[in-house]
Write the structure tokens for this entry.
Amino acid sequence: MRTLARVTVAAVLSFLPTFALASENKLQCTAPEALEKLLEGNKRYVEGKFGMCKDSNAELREKLAKGQTPYAIVLSCSDSRLPPEVIFDKAPGEIFVIRVAGNTVDPVILASIEYAAEHLGTPLIFVLGHERCGAVTAAVDASGKKGTKGHSDHEASEEQGEKKEGKDNMSQLVTRLAPAVAKAKGKNKGVERGVLVEAAVDENIKLVAQNLTKQSAVLKKLAEEGKVQIAIGKYDLDDGKVSLLGKQKCSWVYE
Ligand SMILES: [Zn+2]
């Protein structure tokens, strides 16, 4: 249904210069195709064959000035070592990027994702975490301290983003990551800090992805209609590779 609708709309709108951009740049695609484009770009990046900059020319700017049709929304950590456009080898207009420490969400970030999914028709949301994440490490360290509300294991819940009045900003970030830390600790008793951090990074990526449709009625509706799909991955700081996380079980929240 979705593919048919897209083709029909594209056929009608192809007469309008504003929307001709989509067919010219071949940016309209399905979520699995969008995921493949991301992974293909990452492969080029890892192999040192990426060409993002050469594609970012005046002609492209002129086209993009008329409108945007990004095929993937990437929610990633703000860490300077994994700029999505670079590690996925993408030019301007290809991916809609939201970056925040710990690749977590709040209402403003959810609104950004909703905008791209609903108004730009972007079919894929890709939640990207990474190794040795500083934000997650801070949450792991905070979880060991007594008297920090929201950081202990028994207080953790599946839901992130609870309203915390009177907290300083860093505490709010740590609190949002606390459920993932609690899950990781529950599954990894007595492991060293580095192992726990990696487990918490993985759990955080999964929880954020799962919560997208729980915390956003717009995304839930789009997912149920098959108009948006969610995939998750983790960036390897050492070799630059993005690996899908839990491909069989977790990549597609609505599988
Ligand atoms: Zn990070």
The two ends are 17 Å apart (CA to CA). The pocket of zinc ion is lined by residues 77, 79, 102, 130, 133-135 (CB under 6 Å). Confidence is low (pLDDT under 50) at residues 1-26, 147-164. The first helix runs from residue 2 to 13.
